[in-house]
Amino acid sequence: MISFAILIQVLVGPYAFAQTSSTPTPSLTLSGYAELYYVQDLNQPKAQERPGFLYNHKRNREVNVNLAFLKAAYANERVRANLALQVGTYAQYNYAAEQPLLRNIYEANAGVKLSKNRDLWLDAGVFSSHIGFESAVSKDCWTLTRSMLAENSPYYLAGAKLTYNTPNGKWTLLGSVLNGWQRINRLPGYTKPAFSTQVQFKPSSKVTLNWSSFLGADHADSLDQPRFFNNFYAIINPTGKFGLTLGFDIGAERKPLVDEGILKRYVWYSPVILFRYATSSKSYVAGRVEYYNDPNGVIINTLSAERPNGFKTWGYSVNYDYTILPNAVWRIEYRGFNSKDAIFAETGPAKRTNNALTTSLAISF
Q: Are 82 and 108 in contact (CB under 8 A)?
C-alpha cells in the first residue's frame, strides 16, 4: 500500500497541496472478491450447463469460479473512479454478446460531483445496474443463487447517469442514458439511446422502497419494438433477526406485427418473495418463492409446438449461510423449478421440473 500511496501523491500532488486541512484526503483503495461453487443438478446428471434462463452458477457437476474480480477505487471530494476486472462463469455467460476485450470488465467508470453543497454526481462508463435488489456478488444477496427476475434483467449498464441523494439520506433519485439493455456495445442496427430511472425511499433503516425503470429497445431500429420495463421492490428489516424482501418486475414490448391497425404489446412479469432469519450471529437461513410469466418469449423464449404456453415457471429455494471468517462465507442451497410446459431436457423425454443442490465459498478482501 505504501507504493500505491506514493504513486497517488505523484499523480495528484498539485491537487493535494491545494487542499485545506479540513478537506478529505484523496484515497485509493484496492479490494477483491472470489466465489467458488459446485452445482449438482439432480435432474440432468450429464449436462454441463444449467437451464438457459440462468446465468450465475451455470456449470453443472464441476468446481468452478462464478465471479472473481480485483477492484481499484479512487475518490476525493469532487471526483471518483472505479475499475474492476473480472473472471468466472458469470462473465462468460452474462457478457457473451460483448466483444471479447470487454468481457472482463466488471466496472469501469468515473464521476464528478456537480455541486459543492449537494450530493449530486454525474458518472459515466460501465457500472453495476441499479435495477433490482440483487447483484452478481453473491455474498451481498440473501440467497446463494439469483432469482429468475434478476437473472433476466440487467446486471450491468453502460452510459451516463445523474444521481442525487437528499441531505437527510432518505431519497435517491437517478436518471441515466444508456447504450441498451445490458449492453456495453450497441446492438447492431440500434442507434437510439435507452433511458433508465430510479426512485428510492428509505423512511428508516428498517425499510427500503424502490422503483426502477427502463425505456429503450433490444432490437434493431427497423423492427420498431420499444421496451418499457419496471422493477419494484421493498426490503423490510434487512439487518434484523428476520427480514423480508418483496419484488415485482413487469415489462411490455411492442409486437413485431400489428393486427388490423391495432397496436399490441407482449407483456411479461415476475413476482418474488424472500425471507431471511438469523439463527445466530454468524449464520442465516433464507427462503424464496418466485414465479416468471413470459408467454410470448420476449426474455425467455421456450415457445415451440411442444411448448405452447411459453415460459410459465414457479421457483422455490432454501439456503443456509455460515460466516467462517468476517470475510469468508460458506453457503448451501436447494432449489427447484416447476414449469407449465416440459422445458427441462437433456436426454430422453423433457420434464416439467428441475432440482439442484448448490454450495459455494465466497471470500472478499
A: yes
The amino acid at residue 107 is E
Cell of 289: 418463492
With 0-12 CB in 10 A as exposed, 13-18 as middle and 19+ as buried, what is 326?
exposed
- For 55, residues 6+ apart whose C-beta sits below 8 A from its C-beta are 90, 93, 94, 146, 151, 155
Instruction: Judge if pTM exceeds 0.85.
Output: yes
Distance (Å, whole) CA 62 – CA 105: 25
Distance CA 317, CA 286 (A): 8
DSSP E strands in the chain: the ranges are 27-41, 64-75, 79-87, 105-113, 119-128, 156-165, 171-178, 194-204, 207-216, 227-236, 242-254, 265-278, 283-294, 311-325, 328-339, 353-364
Quick one: which of 225, 217, 152 has its CA closest to 181?
217
DSSP three-state, residue 319 = strand
* Of 227, 220, 273, residue with least CA distance to 252: 227
Residue type, 174: L
Please answer whether residues 38 and 91 qualify as being in contact, where contact means their C-beta atoms are separated by less than 8 angstroms.
no
Using alpha carbons, select from 86, 232, 88, 81 the residue that is nearest to residue 153: 232
Per-residue pLDDT reduced to its tens digit, 117-144: 999 999 999 999 999 999 999 999 999 9
SS3 state at 263: coil
247-298 pLDDT, tens digit per residue, is 999 999 998 765 555 668 999 999 999 999 999 999 999 999 999 999 999 9
DSSP symbols for 187-210: PTT--S-EEEEEEEEEEETTEEEE
DSSP 121-180: EEEEEEEE--SSS--S-GGGSSSSSPPHHHHTS-SEEEEEEEEEE-TTS-EEEEEEEESS
